[in-house]
From TrEMBL:
Family affiliation: Belongs to the peptidase M42 family.
PANTHER family associated with the record: AMINOPEPTIDASE, AMINOPEPTIDASE YPDE-RELATED
Gene3D superfamilies named in the record: Peptidase M42, domain 2 (2.40.30.40), Zn peptidases (3.40.630.10)
InterPro entries for the chain: Peptidase_M42, Peptidase_M42_aminopept, Peptidase_M42_dom2
Any one Pfam family match given in the protein's UniProt record, by short name: Peptidase_M42
Molecular function as annotated in GO: aminopeptidase activity; metal ion binding
Disordered: region residues: 1-44
Superkingdom assignment: Bacteria
Cofactor requirements of the protein: a divalent metal cation
Ligand binding (Zn(2+) 2): 218, 249, 358
Protein name: Peptidase family protein
Residues the record lists as binding Zn(2+) 1: 116, 218, 271
The species this protein was found in: Thermaerobacter subterraneus DSM 13965
Keywords tagged on the record: Aminopeptidase, Hydrolase, Metal-binding, Protease
Length: 387
């Protein structure tokens, strides 16, 4: 989920860093490959995807490790897999059961399903002679949340976020923050981190019953849902493009270019939304954890197209899948970019309720994830309603 500043085009200092982390070496995934890690006993494939994805390094503009993890698994469930010029991973699956895709006749349509691979980050802007690293945000960040957090640069360099001496809490601004990696000097720090390197939150996935907590649920939970839906989908009358997009957190960039090239008839983003069930002075969002996935009605990037809403809600009701309706007063998703492709595309969002978005402790419910998978699979097996 992108913040309002990013949907308005103020993408800040994000984008491709000028150098990879370290002296001429390519960054490596933070997490060990899945084959080298032990899966907890009884863990489902869906939760296994989520565990691996949330622990893989992938800030905006540097999604390579996430993309390769996904690609290695979805190739078995697609007819064609490719990477476009911006770095989006596009897995195409042709119609099954004899229905041909079309733009004017027949039940089959060209559908784009998007989930973004990138996560929010900090980018190194200056390293002083004592080895402290000045940073700026890549995507929406709150300096209050950042204070004291552990972060990880590509290659596994761990640091702690701290700040200059403050006159008071109101004095805490992004420009006051720095990252301490324990370096003895500027030269020592520059052997591990260079200007332009990015750091992401350092936090393992933890589970308490049905609740799962990790960094990067936004939007690795969406990626996991789409991957699992691909694995379960059998027959479909549609030509479906499953797109794992780049740079959503800095302005919906990957979805914009991918949808222009694919030119879908209909588009659906799979992303998180804020749960409004925590203690607040007023109830702003009527979405709760554990009550099922949400069908977005509106956010700051789009008003969901009536056709897509009827498709999503009608499918959920026909299949007996519990769902919620969501009106988010801020933020946006890839649907906001996809709806503006070429002459316009009917678009909507299948949302995963999430507490504490854009923090290292984003929380989702396993039942909501399963419901999102079931709804997405059922949608892709049905014809679209008429406008």
């Amino acid at each position: 989920m992108v913040t309002d500043d990013m949907t308005a085009g103020r993408a800040g200092p994000g984008g491709e860093p000028p150098h990879p982390s370290g002296a001429g070496r390519e960054p490596q995934p933070v997490a060990a490959p899945a084959a080298e890690r032990e899966e907890p006993a009884g863990e489902s494939r869906l939760i296994g995807f989520l565990r691996d994805l949330t622990q893989t390094y992938g800030p905006s503009g540097r999604e390579e490790a996430v993309r390769e993890y996904i690609r290695a698994r979805v190739e078995a469930w697609a007819d064609e897999v490719r990477v476009d010029a911006l770095g989006n991973l596009i897995a195409r699956r042709g119609p099954r059961g004899g229905a041909a895709p079309g733009r004017g006749g027949g039940s089959g349509r060209r559908i784009m399903v998007a989930a973004h691979m990138d996560e929010i980050a900090l980018i190194a802007t200056h390293i002083d002679e004592k080895g402290f690293i000045r940073v700026e945000p890549v995507g929406g960040q709150d300096p209050v949340i950042l204070m004291g957090q552990r972060v990880e640069f590509a290659g596994g360099v761990i640091g702690v976020v701290s700040s200059e001496k403050l006159d008071g809490a109101r004095d805490l601004k992004m420009g006051k923050l720095f990252v301490d990696i324990g370096a003895a000097s500027g030269d020592d720090a520059r052997r591990s981190v260079r200007v332009g390197d990015m750091a992401v939150f350092h936090r393992p996935l933890e589970r308490a019953g049905r609740r799962l907590v990790a960094k990067a649920m936004d939007d690795r939970s969406g990626c996991a849902v789409v991957m699992e839906a691909m694995a379960r989908l059998e027959d479909s009358p549609h030509e479906v493009f499953f797109v794992f997009t780049v740079q959503e957190e800095v302005g919906l960039r990957g979805a914009r270019t991918a949808s222009f090239g694919i030119e879908p008839d209909v588009a659906v983003a799979v992303d998180i939304t804020l749960a409004g069930d925590t203690p607040e002075p007023e109830h702003r969002v009527a979405v709760e954890l554990g009550k099922g996935p949400a069908v977005k009605v509106k956010d700051n990037s789009q008003i969901a197209h009536p056709l897509v809403r009827r498709w999503m809600e009608g499918t959920a009701e026909a299949e007996g899948i519990t769902y919620q309706l969501e009106v988010l007063p801020f933020g946006g998703t890839d649907a906001g970019a996809m709806q503006l492709a070429r002459a316009g595309v009917p678009a909507g969002t299948l949302s995963i309720p999430t507490r504490y978005a854009h923090t290292p402790g984003e929380m989702v419910d396993a039942g909501d994830l399963e419901g999102a998978v079931r709804l997405l699979v059922a949608m892709l097996q049905r014809p679209l309603p008429e406008l």
